[in-house]
Amino acid sequence: MTLTDLEGVAKQGGMPRFVAKQIADWIYAKRVTSFDEMANISKKNKGWLEENFVIGREKPVRSSKSADGTVKYLFDAGGGNRVESVMIPDKERATLCVSSQAGCKMNCYFCATGKLGFRGNLTAAQIMNQILSMPIRMNKTGGNEQGELTNIVFMGMGEPLDNFTEVLKAIEILTSPWGLAWSPKRITVSTVGKLPQLKELLDKTAVHVAISVHTADLAQRESMMPAQKAFPLQSVMKLLQSYDFSGQRRLTLEYIMWRGVNDDVAHANMLIKLIGSLECRVNLIRFHKVPGVDLHPASEDRMMMFRNILNEHGVKATIRASRGEDIEAACGMLAAGKGTQK
Question: Out of 3.30.870.10, 1.10.3470.10, 1.10.150.530, 1.10.150.120, which CATH number does the structure's domain 3-52 have?
Answer without folding.
Answer: 1.10.150.530
